[in-house]
Amino acid sequence: MIDPLAHAPDRVTICEVGPRDGLQNEAVPISADDKVHYCDLLSDAGVPILEATSFVSPKAVPQMADADDVFRRIRKDPGRIYLVLCPNERGLDRAVAAGVRAIGVFTAASEAFAQANIRMSVDESVATFAGVVQRAKADGMWVRAAVSTAFGCPFQGDVPVAAVVRVCERLLALGVDELSVADTIGVATPNQVVEVVGALASAVPPERLGLHFHDTRGTAMANTLAALELGVRIFDTSSGGLGGCPFAPGATGNCATEDLVYMLHKMGIATGIDLDKLRAASRFIQGKLGRPLASRAYTALEAADARAARIAVAG
Predict the structure, then answer these.
(1) In angstroms, rounded to a whole number, what is the distance separating the alpha carbons of residues 170 and 237?
(2) Is residue 133 part of a domain?
(3) Domain for residue 106, yes or no?
(4) Is 170 in contact with 199 (CB distance < 8 Å)?
(5) 36 and 71 in contact (C-beta within 8 Å)?
(6) Residue 81, SS3?
(7) Could you say which of 25, 81, 301, 310 has the lowest number of CB atoms within 10 Å?
């Protein structure tokens, strides 16, 4: 019998993006105290990389206006990476003052998306944060770069694979430690994953390549399986399935951490994450948002526990 996952890794690293990517576009203001508690619950769950906040302009992203306060107060466990988004020199100045040791920068594979999202061309964006990366690396920081719209763009449609490879090569040349290649609007299918990851194989070492899937069209798990078969071992997810691209109509958010952890553990692939403690973090932030979460695994497991509790009381 042929094993379709014969090349899958024994362990996967998850970058939890809920506190930043998950919350940044939420209309309900979340207090700094609640953000700190949410981050600490995710640390309790064992997430190896936690994207805690974003040092962007408070006018541009009001939900992240308290980044300095939040980052200073979250618990920093040894051996865990606490990542923040730093799009420019001003953001890096703030991050350094707050004690940050790991930063993320971002651009796009699509020129149209780069112009709409950050009002720069791809080349201009890379040039803008080249100095950020240089300063951060000189200070001994860990640097991650995100490439959005690698599988499709809401403005230009298809994105050439060559454009994805080109921007990834430029980012690696700057000295970033890891790349996160994103299906920003949730249009990717497994054959695209094979094509893009295959094209990147000669440029990006597998231990430095992460993928960021959205479940807008219900393909995040299928895309993850395709990536696992190709040996990808780093994935971005958001607890409860929070987040989503504001430019994607009907977007249901990032791939849910609970969904991926449930599937991987059932497949015998380790993550180091405690699913029950992860659900506690999602349960907490769900209460603050006041609405159901998108994660299928979270919803199903919560319902099963509630049913078991009712039976125990009745019995």
Answers:
(1) 25
(2) yes
(3) yes
(4) no
(5) no
(6) strand
(7) 310
The CATH number of residue 294's host domain is 3.20.20.70
State which amino acid sits at residue 98.
Answer: A
Which is catalytic among the residues 15, 86, 168, 245? 245
Q: Is 48 helix (H, G, I), strand (E, B) or coil?
A: coil
Per-residue pLDDT at 2? 63
275-289 and 32-45 helices cross at what angle (nearest 10)?
160
pLDDT at site 1: 58
Return the SS3 of 175.
coil
Residue 5: inside a domain: no
Residue 205 exposed, middle or buried by CB count within 10 Å (0-12, 13-18, 19+):
exposed
Catalytic residue list contains 168: no
pTM comes to 0.95
Mean pLDDT of 274-299: 97
DSSP 33-60: HHHHHHHHHHHHHT-SEEEEEE-S-TTT
Q: Is the pLDDT of residue 247 over 70?
A: no
Q: The tokens 């991650």 sit on which residue?
A: 144
**For residue 6, is it within any domain?**
no
* Helix, coil or strand: residue 195: helix
What is the number of structural domains in the chain? 1
Containing structural domain, residue 107: 13-314
| Separation of alpha carbons 93 and 91, rounded Å | 5
Who wins on pLDDT, 309 or 116?
Answer: 309
